[in-house]
Amino acid sequence: MKTITKAEFEDICRQIAADRDVIIRNNPLGTEDEIMLWMLLGTLVSYLSLAEQETPCFSGKPNAAVYRDAIRSVLAGRMENKFDPDQFLALLR
C-alpha cells in the first residue's frame, strides 16, 4: 500500500489551489468547495494507486462535507506519519 507524507499532501493541495480558477472554470457542476475537493479526491485516488474497492463511492449527489470525509477516509492508514489533513484542506477554499 502506497503512503503519503505530510509534505506530499501539502504540495498536492497547494498545486490544486494554484490552479483553482482553471479547475472551477472547467468543472462547472457543484459549488467551488465541492469542485476543489472533488479534484483533490481524484488526485489522491490516482496518486495512491487505489484499487476500485478502495475508492469511495457515493449515493446521491455528494456535498463538500461528504468529499472532506472521503478524503480523510482515503488518507486514514495511508499517512506515512499521522498528520491533520484539515489544515491543508483549508488551502482549497
Topology of this protein?
Blueprint: H1 6-18, H2 20-26, H3 32-47, H4 64-75, H5 86-89
State the total count of DSSP E strands: 0
SS-based structural class? mainly alpha
| Major sheet characteristics | none
Order of helices and strands: HHHHH
Strand portion? under 5%
Unreliable residue runs? none
Give the N-to-C terminal Cα separation. Answer: 30 Å
Rg (C-alpha, Å): 13 Å
The average pLDDT score comes to 96
Count of DSSP helices? Answer: 5
Structure notes:
- This protein is mostly helical and 93 residues long.
- The protein is 56% helix and 0% strand.
- It is built from five helices and no strands.
- It has helices spanning 6-18, 20-26, 32-47, 64-75, 86-89.
- Helix 1 packs across helix 3 and helix 3 runs parallel beside helix 4.
- The radius of gyration is 13 Å and the shape is globular.
- The model has no long low-confidence stretch (mean pLDDT 96).
Compact overview of the structure:
The protein is an all-alpha fold and 93 residues long.
Key structural traits:
93 residues; mainly alpha; 0% strand
